[in-house]
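Reviewers asked in the last cycle whether our approach scales beyond single polypeptides. To address this, we selected a multi-component target totalling 787 residues and predicted its structure end to end. The input consisted of the following lines:
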Amino acid sequence: MEIVKNILELTLEHLSLAYGALILSIAIGIPLAIASLYNRKLASVIITIANLIEAIPSFAVVALVVPLLGIGFRPAILAILFRALLPIIKNTYIGLSNVDNALIDAAKGIGMTNWQILINIRFPHAYPPMFAGIKFAAILSNGIAVLTAIIGSGGLGKLIFEGLASFNIKKIFYGVIPVMVIAIATDYLLTFTEKRITPEVL
Amino acid sequence: MFIELAELWKSNKLTIRTIQHLSMFGIAMAFTIVIGIAVGIIIYKNKKSSNTVFNSLNVIQTIPALALLVFLLPIFGLGALPTIVASVLYSILPIARNTYAGLTSTGKDYIETGKAIGLSNTDILLKIRIPLALPMIAGGIRIAIVFTMGVITLGGLIAAGGLGAPLQTGIHLYDKQLILLTGVWVGILALALDGIGALAEKLLSKKYSYGNR
Amino acid sequence: MAENKLFNRIESIKIRNISKKYGEIKALENLNLAIEGGELLILIGPSGSGKTTALKTINRLIEPDNGQIKINNHDIMNFEPVKLRRNIGYVIQQIGLFPHLNIRDNISLIPRIEKWDKNRINDRVEELLDLVDLPKIFAKRYPSELSGGQQQRIGLARSIVMDPPLLLMDEPFGALDPILRKQLQIEFLKIRKELGKTIVFVTHDIEEAFKLGDRIAIMDKAKLVQVAKPNELILNPKNDFVSQLVSSHKKFMHMDNLKVKDLMVELSNKYIFESSKNNREVAQKMKKNGIELAVTVSDSKLEGIANFNIICTAKNKDLREVTEKVHTFSPEKCLSEAVAELKEDKNTLAVVVENGRPVGLMLTDKLLLELV
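The resulting structure, written as structure tokens, was:
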């Protein structure tokens, strides 16, 4: 029973780590995407950085957090944030900017303000790519949250690393199985929500 | 400072680690490319199976790479082999998906012309669909390069060697210099390989685009 | 490897009663058409008329729902499609050069599959480049490096690489600008003469049809409306649709396609007089018949013409003595050339002569009325 309790605790920690970072990424990413919509320079800088960071292995990103921010739960959140933020900004920006110019002109023509255009026209069009970005970020967060156990974030990854250190396969699987379940459930849930939301707005 | 870094590089055998890293990367990519393209072609030939195959590959993709890596432990043990296997499993999807998309999106004109001048279905696949899908396949390979690089780096955690090993050592010993040196070096390698992939994709697209349309 | 020749030359292509439906839409309805060996048959009609569908049934790119197509009396359904198509050249508007192959490889795709040896392939490619008037160095270039007209020439070269006796062309010049199109048409006519192939050619450009076609098959709404030689279409359009399409009311547009015999006035016997006759007698007859022109013959062969006024002023002489030389044309002569000759000689009249006998009159004022 002790182990079950332990797994549950670590699962909770894992979820707060991964999805705390995800929610933070959304909260920061979407305003940044909106800002880049009105500032071309910012947009090109963000997209370039996003493409570069995507190419760097997660493990290297997690490791590089240590000399910069130290170890523990908070540096781990920042490591996840760092990777999850970019697909959200990128996809939201692409979604918001890929609206037919004629539609924007028409909206201006009937007297809508920039803000109203953003809320009523750009956002509904941006939902599908935005959602794809969030889904990708969620999967990334889940993956990196396992990895950050190596820099002392806790969570399910802890079981895996402890198991690896002592070559205790059982322990490894106590960690791996919930991680897989969370991953597949997240993907399923988000795909389901995506399908529910998309037809309504298009 | 420079001498210090060189010393650090030497004492941690980063040259050998880099060679190990790139060898695993090369082997994994070779398998990934061959299997990915083969899967793409097979699905193209059996379109009914496409959903099943893509869904399975998708599930693998949602699983964290580290989880997949240790999941294979009971079968393959520790070391380079499970790292390469996990890497291949993980990176097949983008290549298979792009191969399939490339094969199904060949211009109708080309297919009809091919038929009309007397090409058999096999000829059309081999001499027209596949070559014309190359830019898209290259796009898939580029994504696979990034994935593979990520998984191979994780291999350091299961005794596969490569540059993941000094990263792990650095974290365990809280050796900030070692972490910075290896982390930045891995980053540079990853960006360089991604850059090569991007370049190849660009060249292929240019060669295979129809200029005067 | 034995050459996979199905036929060395085309004797005939017989399309019998073929129909094709796409869902409820009829693409072809009971098409009957006989194509003669060596001719260039144009298929023309508005889009959706079924002309391209008809063309594609010949190499089995489209299989009709019913009916039969025979080439040299062999049902094409008995041929393997791939083999059949290697015996039939095919050129389309979109050109369809493969962007990943250079010109040499584009042209030699099928020869390479049929494992011709390298020298033979190179020779053939050079020969074809020469035929379509492109320099040999083009062999190494890629389609994207070529202009539209050059690509179209390569498309033609590729279609005849296996030396097929039959060529199907689907609006091959349709995507080109008008001047280039005219230029390529002229080149194509030249090449065609060298090749002596049977050609079925789809177009929607009536001018192109008249310029290139031996016969023209007009299609509308999935049906064949009329098939005939160009001049017959102009002179005897079967219905308003054909008449509109060929603008038969504006014959001047068709001077190149009409012949002298199409617009000559037939010569009735009352105009014809033996040159040995006495003018007094001739004048009387002419007056009685109300004519002012005599066509004089000797032994049924044309001598010339004589005017009523002159005949009347020389009543004691024979007709021969007042007969003047006249411009003559063969009935098969091209109308535009005939008109040009008349204009040059400042003549308003000519006699149409067949085997020495006068058969008709060519009157410029009458001609104008007919043409406009």
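Chain A has one domain: 2-201. We regard this as preliminary and will revisit it once experimental data from Aim 1 are available.
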